[in-house]
Amino acid sequence: MIKKEVKKTQAGVSIDFSGAIAKDTVFTMVQNCATGKCECMSDETKKKVEDMVVSGEDGAVTLELKGKVSEEEIKEALSRSKVVN
């Protein structure tokens, strides 16, 4: 099972993934988002994201989204993600 904790940061929103999560999985999600292969985020939300940074290791991965995005928008997008659900 993958746990997801979404937190507001000064620069945007960060998501802490823990449990059965591989760093490569989060990279795949970021790549899909960046290339438009993912429909998790609305176009409106995508425009607000300025940068995405993946850090950590398998079992404890953090994805930092920089931009004027809200926790609610990101939680909603995560709930639709085929990669992490």
Describe this structure in words.
By secondary structure, the chain is α+β, with helices and mostly antiparallel strands. The protein has one domain (2-80): Gyrase A, domain 2, CATH 3.30.1360. The chain has three helices and four strands. It has helices spanning 23-34, 43-48, 71-80; strands at residues 2-8, 12-19, 49-57, 60-67. It has a four-stranded antiparallel sheet with strand order 1-2-4-3.
Supply Rg: 11 Å
Helix count from the secondary structure assignment: 3
Q: Can you write the helix and strand succession as a string?
A: EEHHEEH
Q: Tell the overall outline.
A: globular
- Count of strand segments: 4
Strand line-up in the sheet with most strands = 1-2-4-3
Which CATH class is shown?
Alpha Beta
What is the typical, i.e. mean, pLDDT?
A: 93
Terminal CA distance reads: 9 Å
- Give the CATH topology: Gyrase A, domain 2
Low-confidence stretches: none
Q: What is the strand content?
A: 35-45%
Helix content range? 25-40%
Q: Structural class, from helix and strand content? A: alpha+beta
Count of individual domains? 1
Q: At CATH's second level, what is the architecture? A: 2-Layer Sandwich
Largest sheet: 4 strands, antiparallel
